Amino acid sequence: MNSQFVASQSVEIAVPEEPAPIQHYLRQPQRLVYAIADPNLIKAISQEQYQLQLRPLNFLSLTFQPTVVLKVWADADGTVHLTSVGCEIRGLDYINQRFALDLKGKLYLVQSNGITKLKGRADLKVSVDIPLPFSLTPKPILETTGNSLLKSVLVRIKQKLMYQLLLDYRQWANQDTQTLIHPQPTEAFIAKG
What we know:
Order of helices and strands: EHHEEEEEEHEEHH
Strand content: 35-45%
Strand order of the largest sheet: 1-9-8-7-6-3-2
Shape: elongated
Distance between the termini: 76 Å
Structural class: alpha+beta
């Protein structure tokens, strides 16, 4: 029995003023990947693609750990986009062959009345062919359980993003300005001195 589960989550983050503007930070969209998950669970594949291993999930009595390949990029206006381009469920071949995950998200800057905010939205959809005996579970119970599971994944990502993104931005902005204020001497300068 093929089932579809969906969840969406929105986020709004007030951005504190830092020496370097958030627009410059958003031009490095790979930083967003490291803000949404444990860096130990992320592997860079290319400049735009990252393999993210999710924490183990429980659905009915199955425990599985999806590995998702994400593509992340920024538009000229600084909007950061994130989309899934692949997914694998290791250890559960039956499910892996009948499982599809679609994640789309974006994060963009909004300024009004001198206040800067980041707004975003993530939409997650999973299609899976539920094997026996789980397919005998009434469809409303399957859908409620599946949708709740996806929502919990997005809520966890949102909480991590809200905390880690601002922390990373603050460190990046202050490190960047310290480098500009106190430039490191170059080898040519040292040789003359």
